[in-house]
Design brief:
alpha/beta, FAD/NAD(P)-binding domain, 2 domains, 9 helices, 17 strands, 25% helix, 24% strand, elongated, disordered C terminus, binds flavin-adenine dinucleotide
Length: 338
């Protein structure tokens, strides 16, 4: 059978792009789909974010990422990954969500929908699912969560200047947002179910925030939960009972959980405890032959375990396995017997 491409990569994040490059370098055709733009997760970071990684640790495809400062900014990274796509001549179908993938005789049929148009089919010999986790925030499931002043993503503090901002969460994103809101002139309160800030908050962020809390410039409600959101107030359950707080802007920075629907419908197993798709870490192949994972989706529910630094190499493992499968069937059979 003639396939439209050898490999469909679902997701044009840094790890999906790195996988496509590795696959093409190995001599196979790769076609990348993204429901949004290239590296949309980075596009959605806080506007003025500086990476915790140095530039060389998030470069992909061997293309140097040079910045004049110690660490790259969001904007540097967007420019870099755009350049990577162009230099490598990657074919990326942006704004085209993969809705379903089904197995055919010896390959896969991918159903994707370009934004505002009819769904279209693409055939491939193998699939790499690199869909990350930013598409599916952890919802609180409380009334008012869908109000327009409520968001699961933090961009910048300017909008909340001289207004009441409530940040829900106690990890990195919440800590950095609370500080940025405070420095943008907002009146900030953090709400978190833990006893205090999470120990995972970056070592250079935690003391800064702790000092602002001690000074009384940022309010806190630990061991507390939001139970309802109203247009200008939130209702909390605190250790001292129910409390209402003014809130013109509500930032629900409570993390993300990877979406496994594509993998499940292909028959791939997901560990119910960890949320990790069952896979061979040496090849990134799932328990469905020809279906691979790359990037942070391989971390399951603990997204802090895999990031660009240690997910960008997954593509090389996949490319090696594809070559063994398609050029050296003897090794393929030996492996398939695992
Ligand atoms: C604020 C912040 C700062 C960070 N700083 C760093 C850092 O300094 N260093 C570091 O290494 N990591 C950092 N990370 C983590 C890093 O962003 C992620 O680990 C990385 O984006 C994971 O890459 P990925 O390719 O696996 O997935 P993603 O980048 O999440 O990309 C997945 C892509 O898949 C697309 N997609 C999803 N479903 C579908 C579908 N059905 N069809 C088509 N496309 C789909 C999405 O639109 C998305 O573009 C940071 C994260 C955050 C939030």
């Amino acid at each position: 059978m003639d396939f439209d491409t050898d490999v469909v990569v679902v997701g044009a994040g840094p790890c999906g792009l790195a996988a496509a490059i590795a696959i093409e370098r190995a001599g196979w055709r790769a076609l990348v789909f993204d429901a949004s733009c290239v590296v949309s997760s980075i596009a959605g970071y806080p506007t003025y974010l500086t990476f915790f990684s140095t530039a060389e640790r998030i470069e992909i495809g061997g293309m140097p990422f040079v910045v004049a400062t110690e660490k790259p900014t969001r904007r540097d990274a967007l420019a870099y990954y755009r350049e990577v796509v162009e230099r490598h001549g990657l074919i990326v179908r942006q704004y085209e969500r993969v809705e379903q993938v089904e197995r055919t005789g010896d390959g896969f049929l991918v159903h994707s929908r370009p934004r505002g148009r009819e769904a279209r089919p693409t055939t491939a010999r193998a699939i790499v699912v690199a869909t990350g986790y930013f598409d599916s925030p952890n919802y609180l499931g409380v009334p008012g969560e869908d109000l327009p002043h409520v968001t699961h993503r933090y961009r910048e503090g300017h909008e909340a200047f001289m207004r009441d901002a409530l940040v829900v969460g106690g990890k990195n994103s919440a800590a950095e947002a609370a500080l940025d809101l405070y420095r943008s002139g907002a009146r900030v309160t953090m709400v978190y179910h833990g006893d205090g800030l999470s120990p995972s908050v970056k070592s250079w962020v935690a003391p800064d925030l702790q000092n602002r809390i001690t000074e009384g410039h940022i309010g806190t409600r630990w061991r507390s939960r939001v139970v309802a959101i109203e247009p200008s107030e939130v209702v909390l359950e605190t250790p001292h009972g129910t409390e209402r707080l003014p809130a013109d802007h509500v930032y629900l920075l409570t993390g993300y959980t990877p979406e496994h629907e594509l993998l499940r419908r292909l028959g791939a197993s997901i560990d119910p405890e960890t949320g990790i798709p069952v896979h061979d870490p040496a090849t990134m192949e799932t328990d469905v032959r020809g279906v691979f994972i790359a990037g942070v989706i391989s971390a399951g529910n603990d997204a802090n375990k895999v990031f660009i630094e240690n997910g960008r190499g997954h593509g090389e493992l996949i490319a090696r396995r594809l070559t063994a499968m398609w050029r050296d069937p003897a090794s393929h059979e030996a492996h398939a017997g695992r």
